[in-house]
Design brief:
By secondary structure, the protein is mainly beta. It contains one helix and 34 strands. The longest helix is centred in the first third of the chain and has 7 residues.
Length: about 475
């Protein structure tokens, strides 16, 4: 069957209930959007609308398709006395050729088709009236002298049914104390709007400092656009009650990314136990769009680099000898989020991507890591990968039970050696963290350790350029 086509309709035929006042973006005076982490936004849409005195219906069009109607609140700033809302309905059954056809089951439409002339010379347009009998799995039309399922041509509808909207609409039954233009603000929570922070860090050639830029990535799949809106972002974990799965009305994301040009960073302030960021200019958030705006920037932030070998607790409860396994030495960089380090700004959670220029001055990607919400004066620590030229191999040289009779009071002595090799042309220091369970005591060691925590021994082992160093130690563990 050929799909039925929707003929172009004049605006006067678009659905509007009798006595209904319609408001669209053309009435808009201001728009503010506050976006939270976790697919949630607060929209405050202020419009100037002429309302009749007494009871009437207001069709508030171009709201989000993922509006949570139970959160909607309509305020009157012009005539608040005597103004109240008695009922509201969210109409999300949207106009489409298929929906229009379904609404016309049992109703008459005009079928326009081309049929050949009797003399065989060309064809002519023929219009016939038919009743839509069914649309389940196909269209069934009843003409004056026949019933057809394969309909060739197009269908013309006299009007759009009142219960079918061209765009998502919140219909409010309200009472107005005056017949005049009034400023109304509709606020509501909606899904389909989200944001995340992304950071780009450029590491200096000597790896002593980095330049950091933060971007906010906005994604709008809410089914509506927000033109010239005041944009604010809330960073923090806001508690939400999830009684049911959030509804989505068929809106699909399209990644039409548009990176913002260099701009002043967003202004930040505290809000309850969160942080609020405000863009210093209006911006338009188009439907099905991803865009980026500048969040923060900092230059020459002092950075520290660390090579880290992380041990395992099971080393100290069994005999396993020399497995010959080459261990990965992780590479970390860290910096202080302090004003003294040219930063000192709350950093929303996100991904930090780090680049460094090669010998020809071309920036190369060297790793990325997630950070959680990081307040001012906290440490930012990033794992960028594993070292290529710094390697390690661990061997258990001795293991024996030295005391204990029951299941939970064994005493073990275990000896280890960790060989570190450095193929780089400069010396490095490798941090070795050994998580030792139970009550433990270091019996001997080739390099001094510190107790980083109650169950962690920390060794700082220097390794010469193109050289090797072996750490040895013996520990007694009481279970």
């Amino acid at each position: 069957m050929r799909p039925a086509l929707l003929a172009l309709l004049p605006l006067s035929l678009i659905a509007q209930a009798p006595g209904e006042t319609v408001t669209t973006h053309k009435d808009q005076k201001s728009l503010a959007v506050t976006i939270y982490n976790g697919n949630l936004a607060l929209v405050k849409d202020t419009r100037e609308i002429r309302l009749p005195k007494g009871e009437s219906k207001l069709a508030f069009q171009e709201v989000s398709a993922q509006i949570r109607p139970e959160t909607a609140l309509l305020k009157n700033f012009t005539e608040p006395k005597g103004f109240f809302v008695v009922e509201q309905n969210f109409d999300f059954d949207l106009l489409s050729p298929q929906k229009l056809l379904e609404k016309y089951v049992g109703e008459k439409v005009t079928v326009v088709s081309m049929k050949p002339n009797p003399d065989g010379a060309g064809s002519k347009e023929v219009r016939e009236e038919a009743t839509v009998l069914a649309t389940n799995g196909g269209t069934v039309l009843q003409f004056a002298d026949r019933i057809e399922t394969n309909v060739y041509g197009r269908l013309i509808y006299p009007r759009v049914p009142a219960n079918l909207r061209a765009r998502p609409t919140l219909v409010l039954s309200l009472n107005s104390a005056a017949d005049k233009a009034q400023k109304l603000e509709l606020s509501y929570l909606t899904g389909g709007l989200g944001w995340k922070a992304d950071y780009v860090a450029n590491l200096s050639s000597d790896e002593k400092t980095l330049d950091l830029n933060g971007w906010v990535t906005l994604t709008n799949t809410s089914g509506a656009s927000y033109p010239d809106s005041t944009l604010q972002l809330v960073a923090g974990d806001v508690n939400r009650v999830r009684e049911r799965a959030e509804m989505a009305y068929g809106m699909v994301a399209k990644n039409g990314a548009s990176r913002a040009a260099a701009a002043p960073v967003m202004q930040e302030e505290s809000l309850f136990e969160y942080h609020l960021y405000t863009l210093d200019r209006p911006t338009t958030i188009q439907e099905n769009q991803t865009k980026q705006v500048a969040l923060l920037g900092a230059a020459a932030v002092p950075v520290r680099k660390e090579f880290l070998l992380q041990g395992q607790g099971h080393y100290y409860s069994n005999s396993y000898g020399d497995t010959g396994e080459k261990l990965k030495v992780g590479v970390f960089v860290e910096f202080d989020n302090k004003e003294a380090a040219n930063l000192g700004k709350p950093m929303p959670k996100g991904i930090v991507r780090v680049y460094k220029k090669d010998s020809e001055g071309r920036a190369q990607f060297i790793g990325e890591d997630n950070i959680d919400h990081t307040p001012k004066n906290e440490l930012v620590r990033l794992k960028l990968g594993d070292a290529f030229d710094v390697t390690a191999r661990r061997k258990q040289t001795d293991f024996k039970k030295v005391g204990g009779t029951g299941k939970y009071n064994y005493i073990y002595d275990a000896s280890f050696e960790v060989e570190l090799k450095n193929a780089k042309k400069e010396a490095v220091t490798v941090t070795i963290l050994e998580p030792i369970p139970g009550d433990w005591e270091m019996l001997s060691q080739s390099h001094p350790h510190t107790k980083a925590a109650s169950g962690t021994a920390k060794f700082m082992v220097p390794v010469a350029a193109e050289g090797s160093t072996t750490l040895t130690y013996r520990v007694r563990v009481k279970w």
